[in-house]
UniProtKB/TrEMBL annotation:
This is methylmalonate-semialdehyde dehydrogenase (CoA acylating). NCBIfam families: MMSDH. Belongs to the aldehyde dehydrogenase family. Keywords: NAD, Oxidoreductase. Coiled coil: none annotated.
């Protein structure tokens, strides 16, 4: 019998009393490895109430002391990195190396959060007027919530709750129902770090459980990463409840290739950036924009490089990437490939019908290369989320910039070139939040914010970095004056707003 995933409420792992369960499958075999509860309303209420009670005490804990809890947590995450990665690889299908890398990127955010005493410092100005001083403080919001996707079940929760809790809040996490085991590993270590009970709560479920968090009056802020449709619903619903919201959603990331670029670097990076993690990451390169006639001849070598990549299970160290998360996801990507062929694109490398020896039921898709793609084609308009690379051709850099800027998404982009002038023109003119120069996936380290823009982000303050500290806190301004003995004699009421 598959194990049942617990809830994490008030510092304890709790068996849900639900009568509705969701199968959690290994994408390489499609066998059921666990059952995830659809959390009843009463259990969600219990989790939020516990978080609210814990936060009232936690907000008064000295900021350096909060940082010490995070230091302990970081040590535990490092010590258990491989164990977390093993669980992550089993339920997502990622290669073990990729899974370890994901856990590490989450650890880096915790390391950034350990510096919160500096990040939370306010501002002070003495004598803004006669004998009057002004000070601003950063204070926690209360209870915050996070809704996270299947593709990074360790990294993205770690983007959220360590910073939120370090800022003095409590946090309720609703992870993806497709891979809930990894977040429970994070919760287990959180408990071992001896944080006060109730600061982190984990509930599971589907849309109804998300809506319960969005509409609850005790949830002050909501962080989300996922699809545009879900993000639009979450943003509209939560802002209608006057909550603070950040939604990181879809992407269509372009890599512009100039004729003067290092060809081998371009080919190697394109193949890896398109197929890594089976293309199931919001920063994957899904469109190559080749500039000029010279780069047309590079497509054959790109084809050869991608053809060498093969998917496989997490236990295969030679596998380039793993399966797609579900049979539904596989069917969707195969449908987009078929539509590209019918719309006139050239399928140079077709990953449909891929098989892996010993794993006949896995959600396998081989590397796929589609050439002569136009903006009207569905393989360009839709976010594919698979190991699929679309190739487009333009005459010059100006056309490349126009092509990227006309796309509704603005998550990430890159340019490969030997020209500093071309790189500077591109980074100045492009309307995308994160830009790489001679590197394909420009994900910033945690002391910078993750700055997707346009249709890739709904909100005002981004994930991690200084933006996250601002998102999880509010500013209190104190204006004060102290009267010396006897100065009140002869004073009269001040009928203006002047500070005198």
């Amino acid at each position: 019998m598959a194990k049942k995933v617990p809830l994490f409420i008030d510092g304890q792992f709790v068996d849900s009393e639900t009568h509705e369960w969701i199968d959690v499958t290994n994408p390489a075999t499609n066998t059921v490895i666990a059952e995830c509860p659809v959390t009843p309303d009463a259990e969600i209420e219990r989790a939020i109430a516990s978080a609210k009670a814990a936060q009232k005490h936690w907000r008064e804990i000295a900021v350096p002391e909060r940082a010490r809890y995070l230091m302990r947590y970081q040590e535990l995450l490092k010590a258990h990195q491989e164990a977390i990665a093993q669980t992550l690889a089993e339920e997502t299908g990622k290669t073990f190396t990729d899974a370890k890398g994901e856990v590490w990127r989450g650890i880096e955010v915790v390391e950034h959060a350990m510096g919160l005493p500096t990040h939370l410092m306010g501002e002070t100005l003495a004598n803004v007027a006669a004998n009057i001083d002004t000070t601003s403080w950063r204070q926690p919001l209360g209870v915050c919530a996070g809704i996270t996707p299947f593709n990074f079940p360790a990294m993205i929760p770690l983007w959220m709750f360590p910073l939120a809790i370090g800022c003095g809040n409590a946090f309720v996490l609703k992870p993806s129902e497709q891979d809930p085991l990894t977040p429970m590993c994070l919760a287990e270590l959180f408990a071992q770090a001896e944080f006060p009970a109730g600061l982190l709560q984990i509930v599971h479920g589907r849309k109804a459980q998300v809506d319960a968090l969005l509409k609850h009056p005790d949830i002050r802020a909501v962080s989300f990463v996922g699809s545009p449709a879900a993000g639009q619903h979450i943003y509209r619903t939560a802002t209608a409840q006057f909550k603070r919201v950040q939604c990181m959603v879809g992407a269509k990331n372009h890599m512009v290739v100039m004729p003067d670029a290092d060809k081998q670097q371009v080919i190697d990076h394109l193949a890896g950036a398109a197929c890594g993690a089976a293309g199931q990451r919001c920063m994957a390169i899904s469109v190559a924009v080749l500039v000029g006639k010279q780069t047309r001849s590079w497509v054959d070598e790109l084809h050869a490089a991608m053809a060498k990549l093969r998917p496989g299970p997490a236990t295969d160290p030679a596998a380039a990437y793993g399966p797609l998360i579900s049979r539904r996801a596989l069917t969707r990507v195969e449908r987009i490939i078929g539509e590209a062929a019918r719309e006139g694109a050239k399928i140079l490398l077709d990953g449909r019908g891929c098989s892996v020896a010993g794993f006949p039921e896995g959600n396998w898709l081989g590397p796929t290369l589609i050439d002569e793609v136009t903006p009207a084609m569905s393989c360009y308009r839709e976010e594919i989320f698979g190991p699929v690379l679309a190739v487009m051709h333009v005459a010059d850099l100006d056309q490349a910039i126009e092509r990227v800027n006309s796309n509704p998404y603005g998550n990430g982009t890159s340019i490969f070139t030997a020209s500093g002038a071309a790189a500077r023109k591109y980074r100045q003119a492009i309307e995308v939040g994160q830009i790489g120069v001679n590197l394909p996936i420009p994900v910033p380290l945690p002391f910078f914010a993750f700055t997707g823009s346009k249709g890739s982000f709904y909100g005002d303050l981004h994930a991690y970095g200084k933006d996250a500290v601002r998102f999880y806190t509010e500013t209190k301004t104190v204006i004060e004056r102290w009267f010396e003995t006897g100065t009140a004699a002869g004073s009269r009421p001040n009928m203006t707003i002047n500070l005198r």
